[in-house]
DNA sequence: AAAATAGTGTCTGTAAGACAATATAAC
DNA sequence: GTTATATTGTCTTACAGACACTATTTT
């Protein structure tokens, strides 16, 4: 018997003690006694393109930090789950649906927004660069420059197409830094890399993605062995085309099969 | 030159473009147009005692979930950082200060609190069991029963001193489950175990803590080698006392030295 | 054939697990 | 001395990194 079920059974057996209720809403209860902060979500939408880690930024056209660059974000609806808010924000700003999306960390320093208290539940998302088209004038895909190694952590810089750093709004350099740190950590033990690739890809392509995210070269032989041994790759039998050398086999990630 | 410094330098060089500001508060700006959720913190205060993973729970004496058991928690002050709120909650409920404390995950399902929208930034903390005395009648240290292996994740059960499951309020079984999952993950590559031990401890004691948290036995020889090779342990030269067999050497964790 | 990368086989070093032998305190 | 655990040493195995070699495509 599952333990959660055990708990439920135990409770029923006790014939619903009078000192306990099941969470019904008491009539007329008032919880609005406290002043409340605003709650937002921000999304670090990461991609790997041309050997660089990239992210989508929007130019702010209102105060505060007007003219600076910010992650797509927005306030959480009163009846909206946090993940749903993040997915909505992505779709509104880019039109992209169905991305890999995960909660990252909640940033709540009292003065992180100079206007008022805004607590933001930061998320990160991973997308195949082919899906990430620059939608609007005020949208830009910037290259991330990570000034630390491994999973040290810390803020990162966003570099525009002209090679100059884009000044970031709020604590978004920290959010991006934490997103990079998290993805690096996950890459070691999770099939997360394929979110950044088209459905079919070569082992060398997968290795390049890993190397770009991790910011360091990987051993080819070992990478190959590890990936094939993981059981998460499925050979398609087809070969790469359009390359001027021996074509590599195309793989796809195995669906999380019903084990 | 550090990259953050580079950014700053680049900005200065551009002589502060007119399309940009530095985040000053515009006069009379109104951000209170939206309805706002309440924001709380909850703390999973974990300890290891007598070979079991334990946590501190409080009996709710008000609706909702009156009579059920809940993590210590409270609303975040309008000018209070999230970590500070969590530390305050711990001190208010237990008197304990200066614990290892880290943000865990933010739970924000719209109906997780039946009264109104409450988003909670869950934290976890690790304490030496000697410091965790049961302070009040309505406070209890419960044993955690983890119905999954490794870092699978999922809710856990809290067992009272009488061996019966304590019914938990809200989504606190999920919060506790995520705390266990996180600590298990961290234990592999972070000096987190010593937070659960007195200052001086034996290698065998440390291994027991690791085994309790991980929920599986560890190889003694390998554990010993790994710990000593990590450079994080410092031999005190003193021996254990009061045992009826050969006493083991006492170690302490090396201060995070100024490398 | 030359160029370029894909893919295979083998060796070596490191670290974990297993097992055995020795050490030392309490009784 | 006996008991119980600490501590050290050695062997085996698994795997990552390194290197050399073969394969296959385009030009």
Automatic annotation (TrEMBL), chains A, B:
Entry superkingdom: Bacteria
Annotated ranges, domain Nudix hydrolase: 37-171
Region (Disordered): 9-29
SUPFAM superfamilies the record matches: Nudix, Winged helix' DNA-binding domain
InterPro entries tied to this protein: NUDIX_hydrolase-like_dom_sf, NUDIX_hydrolase_dom, WH-like_DNA-bd_sf, WH_DNA-bd_sf, WHD_NrtR
PROSITE patterns cross-referenced by the UniProt entry: NUDIX
Entries under PANTHER family matching the protein: ADP-RIBOSE PYROPHOSPHATASE (PTHR43736), SLR1690 PROTEIN (PTHR43736:SF4)
Protein name, entry field: Nudix-related transcriptional regulator NrtR
UniProt organism field: Sandaracinus amylolyticus
